[in-house]
Each structure stands twice: as C-alpha cells, then as structure tokens.
Amino acid sequence: MSFSLRSDNRLPQTRLAVVSYIIVGMIGLLLLGFWKLQVIDSDKYGQMAEQNRVRSIPIIAPRGRMLDRDGRVLVDNRPSFSVLLLRDDPKLVEQYLPVISDGLGISMEDLRDQLQNTRNLPKFQPIVIKPEASSADLDFIESHRSDIPVLEMLSVSRRRYMPGGFLGHATGYVGEASEQQIEASNGKLRPGDVVGKSGLERQYNDILMGSDGMRRVVVNSVGKEMKDMRLTEQEAIPGKQIQLTIDYDLQQVAEQSLGVRPGAVVALDPRTGEVLAMVSRPTPDPNDFAVRIPKEEWRQLNEDPLHPLLNRAIQAQLAPGSVYKIVTATAMLEDHSIPESFTTYCPGYGTFYGRQFKCWVYSSKKGPTSHGTTDLHDAILKSCDVFFYTVGMKLGIDRLAYYSDKMGIGHKTGIDLPSEEAGLMPSEPWVERVFHRKWYAGETISVAIGQGAITTTPLQLARLIGGIASDGVFKQPHMLKDAQNVGEVKFPLSEHTFEKITDGMYGVVNEPGGTGGQLKLAGIEFSGKSGTAQVIGYGTRERMGKQKKFEDNAWFVGYAPKRNPEICVAVLVQESGQHGGEASGPVARDIIKAYYDKKNRKANGTVTADEHTPAPASGAAVVAPAVALKPKNIAPAQANSADANPDPQ
Amino acid sequence: MKDATGTRDYDWWLIAIVAAICALGVVEIYSATHASGLAGMHTKQVKWLIVGFVLMFILSRIDYHLILDQAPILYVVCLAALAAVLVLGNSRFGAKRWIPMMGQQFQVSELAKLIIIIVLARFFAEVRSDELDLRDLLKAGMLVGVPLALILKQPDLGTALVLLPMLAVGAFLAGLKWLHAGIFTLAGVLLVGAVFYPPVSKHLLKPYQRERITSFLHPEDDAKGSGYQLLQSKIAVGSGGFWGKGFGNGSQNQLGYIPVRYSDFIMSAWAEEQGFKGVLLALGLYMALLLRLVQNAQRAKDRAGMFLVMGVAAALGFHVLVNVAMVIGAMPVTGIPLPLMSYGGSATLFVFMAIGLVMNVRLRRFVN
C-alpha cells in the first residue's frame, strides 16, 4: 500500500450512530412536510389543482324576447362575440397587454382601467375586455391563438331592439350589473352579468334573464384545451319571453305621428288598463346601449337639456292645463254646491281676489277675444278659463284636491315600469307641510284650470280621462299581457255627471266651437279634451322675450267611443307654441283612427295581425307565466333607484 | 491482497432497496411522459440503470485500496477535466457542464463528486490522531475548495453544494472538534443568511441564482418562474392527498403543470399520483438505503472503507434532502436530482458507481 494508514482501525461508532439519527430525523422532517401538504392542506391544494386544470367559460343564456299583443317580436337577440381576457397569470397578461392593445384597438389606459376595476374578482374568472368583437378582432384572436394565450372568444347573445328607438323608453335597455345591483341580488348576479337597467328590461328582469351555463374544459399548462377530456357542461337556461299589451301597429302610428317633437304619447285600453302604445321623445336608441356605452356618450345623454333618458310618458310632471278642467267640471257636478245651470260671463278675463286672470281667448290670434255667457257644456267645449276660475273659486282648493286625489293626481298609477313619477296635487296641508304657510285663496284660481303647482304625467291623464269616461272605473295601467290582479279604483259618478261630462268631451271634437273641432273622425265617437299649459305666466313671458323653452306645452287627451271607451290616448307636445288641439290633437286622432281601422279590418277578416312586419314569433317559445302586478299606489322600491334617471322636469 | 469473490458477500439488501427505488422511478417516469412528446423516456432510463448496475459490479471488484492509491492522480484528472469543461464544454441551459463522450453528453461534475469522495476518504484515513486539528481541517477544505470553485464557475451551484456535506460528514467522523464544528456551523448559517439577504447576496450569487432565492421567498411574485415551479409542485403534492390520484391520473403531472416532472420534480409527480402512502414508501426506501449505508460503514474493515461509504451516504443523503425539500417548497430550486428516481444519465451512473464503492468496501470487510 503506497499510502500510510493509521495503525489502528477503530471506527468512530458513536459518531456514526449520530449520523444515522440525523438521517432518521431528516426523513422524519420531510415526511412531516408531506403530511402538512397532503393531509392537512390537501383540500386547498386540491382546489388549486382543479383551478389549474379546468377553465370555465360561461355560456351566456339568451334573454327572453318581448312580443307585442299579437305575438310580433319587439325585442330579441342577435349572436355576437365578446373578447375575454384570461387573468390567471398576471405576468403573461402584463407581457401581452401592448400586443392586445394594438391588435384589438383598445387603448392601454382602457385595458389597465378594466384590470384595475376587476382586481378583486377571482383570478380564474376571465374578464370581458371588448364586448363587441368585430370580424377583424376575431381574425386577430384566431390567428394568434397559439402565441397569445390570454385571449378567448365568448359567444354571447346581444339585445336587438327595433331601430330608431321604437318603443325604446318602454322596453328600456340592458347593461352590465352595477355593484349595487350585484350586492342586492343575494349572489344571483355576478360581475359582468347583463341585466335590465331601465323600462321593462328592468321591471321584468327576473323573467327575461336566463341563467348562464358553464362550459368547463381541461387545459394543460400552456393553456391548450385537451379536447379528449370531457367535463360535464352546465347548460344555459334561456330567459322566458314576455308578451306585452303594446300593439305594434298603434305604436308605429304613435311614433310617426309624434315625429321628432319632444313630448310623449300613451294609449290605453281603459276597460283593462292595457297600454297599447307608449312614446317619449327624444328617444335614444337602446341598441347603442346593448353593448357598452362609451363614457362620453353617456355623459352627453345625461347632460342633454332635452333629457333624452327621461320617459316622459311616466316621468314628465307638468301642468295639465285645460285637460284638468274635466276634473273641475266633475267636481262641480258631483259636489252639488253649484247648480248645474250655473253660467258665467267671460269678457276675456275675470277678476278674483282683486287680481285679473286672463282667459286664453283674450290673446287668441283669430276669432273673438271673449266667450260671452257660458254654461258648463260650452265651457268644456271652448275651454273657457273664466268659467272654471269661478267654479274653482266657489268650490275651493279642498274640494278640488279631494276629487283630484280620488282620480289619481299625485299618485303613481302603478304601471309596471320602474321610476314612475306621481305628479302633484297642491292642497292646504301640502303648502303647510312644504312652505310652512297658509294657502292663498288666489292660488285656487290657477289650479282650477290646471295651472299653478299642479303637475301630472301623460299616463296619469290618460288613466284619468279614460276612467271618467268609463263612469269612474280607473284600471291600473300595465304593459304585461297576462297580468293578473290588475288594480282598479272605483269612484262612481252619478249618471247625470257621467252623461254631462262625456257629452262635453264629445262636443270638444264634434260640436261647432269645440277646441278640437278640426279633429273630427267620421263614424267614430272621438271625444277628448285639449290643454295648453303655460310653462311661465304671461307677464313673465313678455319680460323674457320669446324663447322656445318657455313655449306652451300642448296636451290632448282623446278617446273613443264617447262612453265606456275602448281606447284613450294622452298626447303631450312640449314647447310647441301651439294649442293642444292643434299640436297634440292630430296625434291622438291618428292613433284612434288606426285603432278603428285595424278593428274594422279584423272584423272584416281582411287582415291577420301576423302578416305585418316585424318577424312573427316562431314556434315553441318560452312564455312567461302570468305575473301579478304590484298593488297600485304602494310606491315600489325600484322607483327611485333607476340608474338612468336624470331629474324629472 | 486477496480478492473477495463470493456473491454471498454482496449486500443483497442494499441491491434490493436500490432496485426498488429505481422501479418507482421508472414507473413514475413512464406515467409522467407516456402521453407526451417525451414518451419512451422510461426505456432510456432502464438502459441507464442497466449500465449503472454493470458499472456498480465492475467497481465493486477492484479493491478500494487500489483505488485509494490512485487518489492523487484521480484528483488531478478531476481538476483537469473540470477545467477542460470550462474551456471546451458544451453549453446547455446557460451552463457549461457537459462534454461529449461515446455519443452521450456527460456531466463531468458527477464524476468529480465520486473522485472527491475517494480523495476525502484517503485524506481522512491518513489523519493520525483521533481528533482532527485545524491544519488538517484546512487541508481538507482546500482539497474540496478547488473543485468546488471550478464547479461553481460552470455554474452548477447544486453539485458544488454536494461537496460540502461530504467534507462535513468526513470531518465529523475524523474527529472534528466540537468547537470547530460550532464555528463552521455558525459560518454555514451566516453564509445561508447572506445568500438570503439581498444586499450581501448580490456580491455572492449570479442573477439567476438570486432570482431563485427571491422566488422561493416570494413565490406569488413570480408566477411563471421558479416560484411558479415551486407552487405547482406544492399543488401537485398537496392535491395528491393521502391516497393519491392514481397512476397516470395526476392532473398536475399529466397536463404538464409540474416542471421537469420526469427529473428534478419526479417526487412531486409521484406524490400527486401515489399520495402520502406512496411518499411513505419512497422516503422509507431512501431512509433504508441511507441507514444501510451507515451500517456498511460501521462494519467496514478499516477507516478508509468507512470514509468511502460515509462519503457516499453524505452525497446521497444531501441529494435526497435538498431535492425532496424543494418538491414540498421548503427549499429553493437548486437543480439537484433525486438519486435513482430522477431521469438522467450521468447522475444515475454516479449513484451506481458510488454504490459500487460501498459494495467494494463490504466485499472486503472480512479480508486481511
């Protein structure tokens, strides 16, 4: 042996034993580590492995369609694609952000904003970065499928409304659920869910909205889908469709007849409360909201002085003007404190409590400037202010407020739309409560002709006039065809009052001197009442000069036939500068004519509703069960929570 | 000196344990790769194992005293080879570790480990007293230090680190004074501390090494780097639960979430598919292997034999510790394979040659 060993060969047995203890200890420690991972924390890691393995891609449930009363499609869906960003891996997202920004034409700030806004969501949940992908976007994603692993396409169904804002205010629109909505939904809604934001979309969201399904695919570590590994799929349950009371034909006439003038139209069937048509101008196109509203556009809509987001049919609270005289007249007849034969002399003005109140006829541009001696019938026909000033003075505000209240002024009608306004009936308690003062008797004079503090919505007036013409039966207006428990308020009128008032409103259109004389329809008992409501007093207007926004609001509430009408139409044309009969009357006439034309065609069997555009409802559609309306006059909670409600006018 | 010949004297228990561990490895390599582009890797591994067994028997036949005789020459050859790798070696994955030999790429540092075991065994066997004095300790340190520096230069931190436990165990058995042991332990702790303390570590470590340390400490910040690897490994292990997901059923394994699942992270794949019960089996086998080595050392004929066996035990034990601790996320990624289970040519051959040395010592325990 060339190297020299120690002479003894005693081995350090103790130290060798120490080494074996160390080995046992080391293996023991490692096993403890495995025990912690595999037994104690096993569930946690099991879930993480599952999140790794399974990518969940939502299957969006299509919303239910909306049909008109004859089954024609008013709102349906169209297929579309959204671009999803998979955020499992922040580093990858960061790396590809510039490429994505470039390829999809989304600014970096926008992308970062979206990432920032969704930072609290679970990472495995993809976010929509472009809701409406163009075909170029789809090509981009398809061709970069392998090198940009963080993009995914999501097939969605997008709401399709009729073009040009047709029925837009009534249908409302949809959008991504807001944080408040998600919180209020008790876990039913998730971020990114599309929900109704206004109108019927909001009101009947629970019916219309389906339940999204989930496609679960196995992906490998580089994000490639393993096609041979199938996982159970949770199918999407489509939303149910709803049938509306809206009549497409009448709606179309209403839309065209009102044209582009700011205002509103509501057509009701007073026998049932069914809303046959509803228009509000200006109307934004809800299709513009179906994707995602650019912030700028939204700001403009909200700041537009014309308030395009306001559904004037149920939210415009304006002085009813002379239409209110029907209430004053009814109060006079029912109250019996003033004899029915009561007349006044109208020289074009009247003096009450030491102040002169003009009659509209005084500033009439053609014809006489006074009404002379008028009785109730003539006063309704010619809408003589002096007569109703006098009646109002004699009745007093308490009686007026009593009848107005009974007939629904100052109360929501209970229509199945969110954010309805109640209008206002001034009264002694009201001024005391709000202004802490006594009622001035002089104020009654203005209120008696529908001016002053009194405000109503077009829907309220349609319900009110239709109800009076139906002998005091006021049906709750509604838009869902199969609504059950339709509310009803009965305020029976004496037979005499009923005849007198309806004769008066018939005379407005059909007798010489009536304010709606030019509206006459052959063979139809077209009746109604015009109203020309001042926005500001005559004196103020002279001071301010002639400005469009201070022009009169033109009202006409028409119905047919004369008693127990089948249809009642309230029309508001704002700031028209024309009288109610001139500006609004023709719209009501057009709709009522169209109603009878259709009725006659149907009776003759010449036309079936289904041959009209739009596309008829196809085959086996899911139909919503009958839905009970909310009880009338109980202010619904949603009334003041709409996302898109600018201040009412 | 007579040669020992009887097959009866082979440590059949040791061979059985080694074979069992290799079998687990082959099974898991098959499971991890059969469905991927790497299919067929298990047969390659079997070939390496066969070569390994042959080498083991060859090495067991040559009297270790003859091998120890050649230690100085082996040492010089070792240093030369390490230097040659630095100059001539093939660069792969950013490190120069391989030289081509017979159509295969060999990792010279694996051979270096074996030679250092031999060199240290000879050095410690020559120490005359029962206590290791400081001068001898420093000499031993120098012997290890030079190749360690060369391996670090490749760079291959993992293999370089393996040399330290060889030195430590050798010195300990050679009668290291408790005072020195204390001092060196303290120095070791300080060094580890320095490595984990960025202001200091930037002078000591290469950027990629520092990155591994950082991602070990903060795995969530490094979702696709080595932090990701550790996390995915932990997910695989944890999701396996007690009973495991079953052979070929580990999603982390089959879908490729476990990094190099057939090699460095094979324990992760095994733990996922076989669960804690499988881990018990595997770690039990490793413990049996190591304790069997210690037992062989205890029965060695002379101190030289004991140092040889314990050098092997130190190297293998360190491999197991560092690799398995990495798999459960308790240590950073170092690139140290799991002996006998991980796929790999040079590493497998090293282990078998090392076991061959152990066998060698055992065969000669009754021979004078």
Which strand order spans the largest sheet of chain B, edge to edge or round the barrel?
1-2-3
Question: What number of domains of chain B?
Answer: 1
Q: What proportion of the residues of chain A is helical, as a percent range? A: 25-40%
Low-confidence stretches of chain A: 609-626, 631-649
- What average pLDDT do the residues of chain A reach? 83
Q: What oligomeric state best describes the polypeptide chains here?
A: heterodimer
CATH superfamily of the largest domain in chain A: DD-peptidase/beta-lactamase superfamily
**Major pleated sheet of chain A:** 5 strands, mixed
Total number of strands of chain A: 21
Strand content of chain B: under 5%
What about the largest sheet of chain B? 3 strands, antiparallel
Which fold name corresponds to the CATH topology of the largest domain in chain A?
Beta-lactamase
- Beta-strand segment tally of chain B: 3
Distinct helical segment count of chain B = 15
